[in-house]
Amino acid sequence: MNRTRIVTGVLIAAVLGLGPSTASVAFAQASPTSSSQVAPAAKPVPAAKPAPTATVAPVPRIAPAVPAAPAASAIGTDEEAAPGGRPLRPLSNDIAERVQACTLCHGPQGRATPQGYFPRLAGKPAGYLFNQLQAFRDGRRHHALMAGLLRNMSDDYLREIAGYFAALDVPYPAPAPSGLGAEQQARAERLVTQSDPSRRVPACTACHGPSMAGRQPAIPGLLGLPRDYLVGQLGAWRNGLRRAHAPDCMADVARALSADDVAVVASWLAARPAGAHPEPPSSAPLPVACGGLAP
Predict the structure, then answer these.
(1) What SS3 class is residue 252?
(2) Which of 57, 61, 220, 246 has its CA 20 to 30 A from that of 268?
(3) Kindly report the CA angle at 251 between 246 and 255, in degrees rounded to 5?
(4) Distance between CA atoms of 94 and 7, rounded to whole angstroms?
C-alpha cells in the first residue's frame, strides 16, 4: 500500500514538473504516516485588529471679516460700494479719465498745487503744452517721472492730452505776497515790462503778452505759477538742464540774467494776480528768434 502511494506521489510530481527533492516533500505532505513524519500545519495568523478611529472635533466655521461683494454687481456702478460706503464712480475711459494720473501732482483739473513746484496746466496754450510733453518724452527736459509716463506715447496722444488741459477754464488761487523790498520790486518790474537792451534781455511782456497770460499757439503765461517753479525753470535754462527747439530763446535770455535777477523776477511774477486768457496769435515779429512756436 505504501509502495502504491509512493508511486502515486512520484507520478503527481512528474505531472507537475517538480524535482526529486520537491517530489519527496510533496509525497510526505500527502502520505498519512505518523505524526513525526508529517510537518505540522502552520497556525493561522490572527488578523490585525483595526486601529481605533480618532475622534476629531469639528472645526468651527469662521465668518469672513468683510462681506463678499454681490456677484451680480458691475464694476463702476452705483450698486457697488467702495470701502467706507461710498459708491464707486463710473468709468468712462475718455481723455478726462485717462489724465487722472496727471492730477496727482498737478492738482485737480491741472490747477497746480500749493507744494510749490508743480505748475498749472489748465488754460495753457495747447501748442506750449504739447511742446513740453514732447520735450519730456524726448529728453529736452529732464524729469524721471514725466519721462517714464510719456515714453511710449505718440505725438497724436500728446496733442490730445495738451488739448484737454488747454480747454479747461478754472479759477486761479489768490497769489502770495512777494516779500520784495521797494528797490527789488522796481528792478523786477523793469525787467518784466521794459527790457534791458544792454544785456539783450527783452521784456517778458514782449513775448508773453501785456497781461503775461501767454500767447496762442505756443507761448505760455507767466502768472499763477509758484515762485519756486519759476526759479527752477529759469535756473534750468541757465544751466542747460532744460532745452527747447532751436533757436532756444529762453536759454539765451536766462543766461543773460544774474541769479539775483532770476530771484526777484520770479518773486514778482508769483505775486501778481492771474486769470486772463492767452492772447490770440500775432503776426508781429518777436524781439528774439524762438523755435517751436509754429501751430
Answers:
(1) helix
(2) 246
(3) 145
(4) 106
The per-residue pLDDT for range 191-218, each reduced to its tens digit, is: 999 999 999 999 999 999 999 999 999 9
What is the rounded distance in angstroms from the CA atom of residue 220 to the CA atom of residue 209? 9
| Contact call for residues 122 and 168 (beta carbons, < 8 A) | yes
Q: Which of 201, 130, 263, 81 is nearest to 121 (CA)?
A: 130
Give tens-digit pLDDT for 126-161: 999 999 999 999 999 999 999 999 999 999 999 999
Would the pTM of this model clear 0.70, i.e. be above it? Answer: no
Q: Which residue has the cell 503765461?
A: 221
Name the nearest CA neighbour of 100 among 167, 24, 165: 165
- Which residues make beta-bridge pairs with 242? 141
How many Å apart are CA 11 and CA 121, to the nearest integer? Answer: 113
Count Cβ atoms within 10 A of the Cβ of residue 228 and give its class: 0-12 exposed, 13-18 middle, 19 or more buried.
middle
195-207 b/e (C-beta count within 10 Å ≥ 16 → b): beeeeebbbbebb
Question: Which of 229, 75, 98 is CA-nearest to residue 160?
Answer: 98
Distance CA 43, CA 153 (A): 89
Whole-number Cα distances in Å, 50 to 44, 46, 54, 82, 146: 18, 12, 12, 56, 73
Give the three-state DSSP class for 87. Answer: strand
Give the whole-angstrom CA distance, residue 168 versus residue 277.
Answer: 11
- How many alpha carbons fall within 13 Å on the CB side of residue 173? 17
Return the beta strands (E) in 160-293 as ranges. none
Q: Is 135 helix (H, G, I), strand (E, B) or coil?
A: helix
Residues 6+ apart with CB under 8 A from 178: 185, 267, 268, 270, 271
